[in-house]
Amino acid sequence: MGSSYAYPVLETSDPVEALAAAGRLMELAVSGPGTLLAGEVLVHTAESARRIAGVLPLGSVFRSGGDDRPVWTAPDALPRDLEALEAMLPATAELPEDVPVGTFEAALVAGAGPATGWLYWELPGWPAMPGREVEVQYCGAQLCLNSRDLRLDRPATGHMLYVCTRQDDHERAGWLAARAGLRLIGPASPSI
Questions:
Q1: How many Cβ atoms sit within 10 Å of the Cβ of residue 180?
Q2: CA distance 145 to 80
Q3: Beta-bridge partner residues of 147
Q4: In this structure, what DSSP letter does residue 34 have?
């Protein structure tokens, strides 16, 4: 994502509140080519794998086996046998590149339960603001599930929402947060 930085704007244990706040940020985006969505959920239990598999959009995959020898499995091809399913864990449930925005996010966040994960909405741009032109690069919103950081290194029992802008655009991040009824609650981090 180049020089994209993520500014935390909400920490909550309520997934409905987190998704509503992400929606308010996305409503601020300028018109343009469609919003793109990416995301993944880290799955550690068979119960979680089955729950997530039931809500993933068509084209999603489970990746297991580590980075050296990954194994890709479609959600509907997960082993039915509990022992075989547990043998492929941990796994990462990954969204397809062309998933439509706004069709499954609530089900995915609810289905994730205590699992960590993230959703990233790449937006066509942020609007002009006093002293700044329209921005069409490095614009987005990211929701980290059950984590206090972007890289999911600090598991938590809540969710963090970030507004993403250029590295040097702290003012825009604060302005966007305020327009969405939020506020900056911590320092920025490089986006993933």
A1: 22
A2: 27
A3: 155
A4: P
Quote the distance between the C-alpha of residue 13 and its chain's center. Answer: 15
pLDDT given for residue 34 in this prediction: 79
Core vs surface per residue 115-124: b (16+ CB within 10 A) or e? bbbbbbbbbe
For residue 94, give the 3-state DSSP assignment. strand
Is 40 exposed, middle or buried, given 0-12, 13-18 or 19+ CB atoms closer than 10 A?
A: buried
pTM over 0.70: yes
Amino acid at 25: L
Burial 150-169 (b: 16+ CB within 10 A, else e): bebeeebebbbbbbbbbeeb
Percentage of residues in the chain having pLDDT higher than 90: 74
Instruction: Give the 3-state secondary structure of residue 62.
Output: strand
Of 66, 94, 61, residue with least CA distance to 78 = 61
Q: Which amino acid is at 184?
A: L
Q: Give the tens place of pLDDT for each residue, 64-89.
A: 987 777 889 999 999 999 999 999 99
**Rounded CA gap, 18 and 106, in Å?**
10
Q: List, edge to edge, every strand of the sheet that includes 4-12.
A: 71-73, 61-64, 91-94, 36-43, 117-122, 140-145, 159-166, 4-12, 189-190
Burial of residue 79 (number of CB atoms within 10 Å: 0-12, 13-18, 19+): middle
